Amino acid sequence: MRLLSTAAGRGIAILFLGLLLAALLQAEGLRKQAQIQPAGFQRNLALRVTRPLVSVSRALHLTTPRHELQVAIGRADEDRIDTRVHLTLPPPAGPLPEQQPRTQTHASKPQFTRVKPLRIWVAGDSLAEVPGQALERITDPAVKIVGVESRLSTGLARTDLYNWFTRIQQVPGQLRPKVAVFSFGADDAHDYMGGAHVGPFGSPSWIAEYRRRVDGVTRELNAAGIYVVWLGLPIPDGPGFRKSFPIVNRILESVAKKHAKQSTFVDTWHLLDDFHARYAQYLRVHGKLTMMRLPDGVHYTAAAGDLIAQQVLKQLGAVYRLS
After folding, report:
1. Domains by residue range for the chain, with CATH
2. I want to staple 256 with a disulfide (CB 3.0 to 4.6 A). Which of 21, 34, 91, 265 is the partner?
3. Rounded CA gap, 312 and 306, in Å?
């Protein structure tokens, strides 16, 4: 009996040491997972547990093998937690003046051709992927999609999950787009904004901070000579998103209007509702009943992506001449 107890004890000790070693080797990843959890007791507890774990792992240089493996597979920044809102331009002094859209003649519009195509970058949360793919299917040789970047559950709020502000700073030099098409907001209905509580979702303080971020991104790209297209959130099926999506849409539309010379807002809500302004999973396209939305009541089908892509190009046609 004593022999069995000793063997069991050794087995438990070996298992414990193995789990501890695994935790130390994965400490950076565990820390990131703790950081990106929703605000609350579980997140606070996870942060308290992983903080000393990371300290010990770094002291023993046990983080090195994981980092070298990530570098080898091109994911060197996987464990990096970057919550800063990277906006280099100072905020405007006072309210922005309302700008009127440009009325350009056909001759005054910048022209793009097969030789010099209009370079478009598409980015955002999971709702960015299908419209981006639809734009890639466009056969107009005067349009070139230089990238479609879609990251699940990300946005302008949770910079700790993925920092789009950092990525947006990198893109002008890397991809040289002339137009940026963004789809953000579906996953931004959080009271917690990547490192700080700014008030309950939809409160005046939350709206002010989210507008600051949308406005900052628009101005940063405009200053780099990049036209910004904000895709509105579509009409959803169900009460939850139906409350949050209009709040985000009002912010996106108001910022686009204030920078109307260099940005536009695409109203996907009314593009995809029915004749009675209700959610519709199917719409008639060229006389044929076509599925527009996936069963989750939020995401697009390829047919809906085509409609959105056509609307994007239509609105860009007011600014650029494509041939």
Report:
1. 2-72 (no CATH), 111-322 (3.40.50.1110)
2. 265
3. 10
Q: Tens digit of pLDDT for each residue in 40-89?
A: 666 667 667 677 766 777 777 666 776 666 666 766 566 566 667 878 78
Alpha-carbon torsion angle 5, 6, 9, 14, nearest 10: -150
Please determine, for residue 17, whether its predicted confidence score (pLDDT) is greater than 80: no
Q: Which residue is it, tokens 């695409």?
A: 266
C-alpha span between 88 and 98 (Å, rounded): 23
Q: Give, to the nearest 10 degrees, the angle between helix 204-223 and helix 239-258.
A: 50
pTM for this one?
0.78
> Cβ(227)–Cβ(262) under 8 Å?
yes
